[in-house]
Amino acid sequence: MNRPLTVARSGYRHFLPIGTRWMDNDVYGHVNNVVYYSYFDTVVNEYLIRAGALDIEHGATIGIVVETQCNYFAPLVFPERVEAGLRVAHLGSSSVRYEVGLFREGEDAPAAQGHFVHVYVDRATRRPVSALPDALRAALEPLVVASGTSAAADTVANPSRTG
């Protein structure tokens, strides 16, 4: 199995610090794998809400997650602070592929990285929208990276998983 190239901190356009919690650790002494997905969800939705592109209570358009994936390179452990990096790899007419890197505070190499895909749908009908709302597209455009961007400047050697 080929290990994926990791994307360095410089490859991400937005960052959110996230504190780990005592309950995030599992019996193996590190943050449990399912918690990483909550970090992904947190950085994406925090960005969209603060940018005014997502109204979680009354917005006519909502994002439904249709695909997720995560690669783990090094353990995260309570009480570390995680810095979640966010970028957009695909901005379509009704879907967005978000890529997220999870970094220990101040480190260049990710402890984990992955993606998830939102399909944006009408809240009432749950059918895909014909076009992303203007505010959403405008908020996401600064996060877009060129297709296949894992350029040498944005990659780091694959760290080995130690936990």
Topology:
Blueprint: E1 6-7, E2 14-19, H1 33-50, E3 61-72, E4 81-91, E5 95-104, E6 112-122, H2 134-140, E7 155-156
Antiparallel strand pairs: 1-7, 2-4, 3-6, 4-5, 5-6
Main features:
single chain; 163 residues; alpha+beta; Thiol Ester Dehydrase, Chain A; five-stranded antiparallel beta sheet; two-stranded antiparallel sheet; 15% helix; disordered C terminus
Poorly predicted runs of 5 or more residues? 150-163
- Share of β-strand residues: 25-35%
**Approximate shape:** globular
The figure for the number of domains is: 1
Average pLDDT score: 90
Structural class: alpha+beta
For this structure, the CATH topology is Thiol Ester Dehydrase, Chain A
Structure description:
The chain has a five-stranded antiparallel beta sheet, covered by helices on one side. It has two helices and seven strands. It has 163 residues and is an alpha+beta fold. The chain has a single domain (13-144), classed as Hotdog Thioesterase (Thiol Ester Dehydrase, Chain A, Roll), CATH 3.10.129.10. The model is unreliable at 150-163 (pLDDT under 50). It is 15% helix and 33% strand. The longest helix has 18 residues, at 33-50.
Q: Could you write a compact summary of the structure shown?
A:
This protein is an alpha+beta fold. It is built from 2 helices and 7 strands.
